[in-house]
Amino acid sequence: MLKWLLRIINSFFQSSSTIPGTVVAPLTSTSNNSENKTQGPIIMISKNFSLDEFLVSQTATRHGIDMTPPPEIENNIKRLVIDVMQPLRDIAGPLLISSGYRPEDLNSLIGGSKTSAHRFGCAADFRSNLMTPLDLCELIVDLNLPFDQVIHEFGRWVHVGIRWDDQPIRKQTLTAYKEGTKTRYLNGLFAMEDIA
Ligand SMILES: [Zn+2]
Question: Cα(22) to centroid of ligand 1, in Å?
Fold first, then answer.
């Protein structure tokens, strides 16, 4: 924990890189997820994130599902990036996004929850090559980012969501694990080896 605090303090002294409300970034890419690029110009929505990174799904491609987000969904993705993903990335380094926006067809295909924040462009699943998923989850909490839900998923990746409606944020933290073939959730953030 102390290690992250020191890094946070250092980063505040080194840069004043707070992201203003709406960032219209240039078309040059500093995206950290180059394999996930789709065709066409890359639209950067913050210093390090492109819109495309939140619109990639192998299942959608296989099933010909259109991942083009409606304007309100695109705004949600931008809010997720500006409020949570970029501030986290500033401290944690590159984040590898495996899932962002899930249109309704895609969400039902993969058996996602009907109220999943992914449906609204308000959630991302990701991991890092520098930090464990559990450390990333704890860092999101320690940074006091305005998340609605953080889930430590099976010790393998992080799910973070913001609100898609006008309800207050819950700041809920959960750990997902398998019991046989069933997915179970515990309140709080735990290492997999601590769940017996
Ligand atoms: Zn997720």
Answer: 24
